[in-house]
Amino acid sequence: MGKSIVDKIWAEHVVHREEGKPDLLYIDLHLVHEVTSPQAFSGLRMKNRKVRRPDKTFATMDHNVPTINRTQIDDQVALNQMTTLEKNCLEFGVELAGIDSPEQGIVHVIGPELGLTQPGKTIVCGDSHTSTHGAFGALAFGIGTSEVEHVLATQTLWQTKPKTLKLEINGELAKGVTAKDVILYVLATYGIRFGTGYVIEYCGDVIKNLSMEERMTICNMSIEGGARAGLVSPDETTFEYLRGRKNVPTGEQFDQVVQQWKAIASDSDAEYDKVIVVDGSDIAPMVSWGTNPSMTAKVDASIPRQNDYQTELEKDSLVRALSYMGLSEGQRIEDIKIQHVFIGSCTNSRIEDIRAAAEVVKGKQVHPQVRALVVPGSQQVKKIAEAEGLDKIFVDAGFEWRDAGCSMCLSMNADVVPNGEHCASTSNRNFEGRQGAGARTHLVSPQMAAAAALNGHFVDIRKVTVGAV
Amino acid sequence: MSGIKEFEGKAVALDRANVDTDQIIPKQFLKRIEKTGFGRFLFYDWRYQAEGVLNEEFELNKPENQGATILIANENFGCGSSREHAPWALLDYGFKAVIAPSFADIFHQNCLKNGIVPIVLTEEEVGFLLAKGKENSFTLSIDLEKQSVTDHEGFSAQFPISQYWKAMLVNGWDEIEITLQLDDKISAFEQQRETALQI
User: Fold this and answer.
1) Where on this chain does [4Fe-4S] cluster bind (chain A) (predicted)?
2) Phi and psi at residue B88, in whole multiples of 5°?
């Protein structure tokens, strides 16, 4: 019987195995950011421990950073967290893409961009969206700060091998349906804990035809279904994305490493603990209406009613969610008015996302009741977008064009949605208070967010003529 | 971390599904660089209304639930963000254990690392405790070695926990210290792997 990519990566990384214990797993790449690392570095310092492999550790600052006026940071607590990361990186010899670096950006955007993320690697970061890197055929998962400290000190983690879930998405996506809609559809259909205890392997024709950036969008939100990791077996699309990037071998060495990467892909007869098959043609542009990512509907549908649910717990969750969101049972999605638009986050802030949104926006104007923000995922994405003139398209339409960071995905910086207002957001979580106390988040694709910005409410992107000036 | 064997405490019921770590500790409190002092921010947006006014309706704020050390929750507790600030806040508030029918993976792991016992009981057992907690506050006893939860009125349930984590919690061991004893093995692995990959 064949092996899955998870079986293969796992087997290659077990340092120590002992009856009655999890496996001791080797970590190839440890990404670090300012919010979940200070306590880990303090822990090392208290015990007089060092970072075992600074060369396998890479840091940036993204969660806290301002996306405007970066030279002047008013939030002293946030500033302290940033300077603490700088000091820690200096003291422990860790490379840092700091706020002034042209390579700075959201950790899950710059890892792939810099070629640090590669097939077959084990990758961890103190951030649950580390699953993003799985798009490259890496086993990548989020960890807590205690685990960050453990990896810093030992370059390993005690881990129990997760179960495997094959999620096959067949057929073709309709026009206007994006990778974001695919993952939102999966969450709407299977809920927010179908992946708990599993690593999801995404496959099927739909996945095969996606670009690397689109695959990242899907893997990114694996954690929203409860799975710590989600991945895609590497193929030619993966290799072509990586060719020529910083930190990726060149020339003959590249050809050699591609052979190793090919070998890591799942065998066609690999066994899985669970299999889910999705028909890609059933997927529509999606909009979340509730307070977790599974509370999502097709744009041309309506918000569910209590009668649509079986259990009291589900009915109770619906009532609580709608009360928080200020919405009603049976309300049409297209009738939901929005006051804010956020295009950004580790889910949808890469150059293809920005281009797709720009295409919708080009030559048009943001609705007068709407404040709209574009926050590129990295300074490199920003630079490419500006070279293509995309910043001008956004600014002319009435969008704000910002510097890179997590920004309004979790609003740790000054980019906040006010109490009671609705935001069409390309981010990954619509939890209560996520974008600000009382803020009401709707998760959508970049195209859908752009169209909502122009109209002041959700519109079905399939009915919008895109690219016409 | 000191070891945990058995303890008794007041239980408080929070009957909501899918409580995410953004609720347990909202993002505005993640900027601190310490591990301590997060208890006052626990469930902040539920405990307080605008401008810091206490929400008297919220379960943790009821007078009879003050001093609780065991939290009874519903399915998929701790989903979402990997922030370890969530167990730090629970611990600092005074919680030593969380009982639920299921937990999110990262939160579950983060609890274990901080000496909070995440206890999985069946839906029926948790349902019974949630209903009981809605009526009144009550006392539960948790015995980690026997893997049991009991009240003083006939309720008794067994919970699963891996032997590895049971030993870690009971003895209060430092995981990094244990791993560092395998230092030679890690070095040998690194050498072998780097040769194989020609890097």
Assistant:
1) 346, 406, 409
2) -60, -40
